[in-house]
Amino acid sequence: MKFKVLRQAQKNTVPYWEGFDVDVTDDMTIAGVLDHINYNDDVIDDTGKKTSRIGWECSCLQGMCGSCAMVINGVPALACETMVRDLEGKEITIRPLQKFPVIHDLIVDRTIIHENLKKINMYIEEYKPVQEKKLKDREKEHVHQYEAAKCLKCGLCLEVCPNYVNGNNFFGALFANDCYLVSSRNQSKSNEIIQSYEEHFGKTCSKAFSCMEVCPMHIPTLASMAKMNRQSIHTSLL
Ligand code: SF4
Ligand code: FES
Q1: Same domain, 97 and 213
Q2: Closest ligand to 62 CA?
Q3: Residue from 75, 78, 152 to probe ligand 1 pocket by mutation (most atoms less than 8 Å from CB)
Q4: What's CA 65's distance to the chain center, in Å?
Q5: Do 9 and 84 belong together in one domain?
Q6: CATH of the domain at 99
Q7: Strand order from edge to edge, sheet including 75-78
Q8: Which residue's CA is the nearest one to ligand 2's atom 3?
Q9: Protein residue closest via CA to atom 6 of ligand 1
Q10: Residue 82 belongs to what domain range?
Q11: Tens of pLDDT, residues 66-112
Q12: pLDDT tens digits for 14-54?
């Protein structure tokens, strides 16, 4: 099978496509394909020319760390979770995320995700459990908190979002989920978080919801938004 990889030696150099022929097996993921290409001492492209190893990031290889996020056949996805047998076409394209600066080949700089969260002090300073009236409500809240806490900060939701541009004031779905998580676990911060939510998410989100389609953890961002919007209206009425 043929794989076309968009390569870039380093930041600010011109990217170029390079092809590789790989004998794929039925259980191969895109991470497996990249490993296979890089495995031999001599990496050979589809013209028989010797080339350099493809730069890409991974850590867990089981969909838990988010480092292998890239664009596979035009769709933002985790390389270690994408099975080759599920992809269509004789030629598979692999390129880096486009909303982040490229460092090398498929490795991008996602520092901005953490910088944005640091700006807002998005962490639980002192945990005081919220006392929901009914046990059922509390259980429901905990289920949603658990879902929101699964975010890998992989950046796939930002890649696919029409409103996100690197460095703009809109922080994307991962931010909306963190707003819900931190404000629901830390009531003393909730007013501050609601304001940040409005400024960096609420007033710009155009409800494309493609973020939920690509999220590898299937986080219910719509439910986080509904809860944050309710809190926001409630606060403005006080
Ligand atoms: S919300 Fe989903 S897609 Fe976005 S960073 Fe978190 S895990 Fe990745
Ligand atoms: S290597 Fe960790 S999510 Fe793919």
Answers
A1: no
A2: 2
A3: 152
A4: 10
A5: yes
A6: 3.10.20.30
A7: 16-21, 2-7, 91-95, 69-72, 75-78
A8: 63
A9: 151
A10: 2-108
A11: 999 999 999 999 999 999 999 999 899 999 999 999 999 999 999 99
A12: 999 999 999 999 999 999 999 999 998 999 999 999 999 99
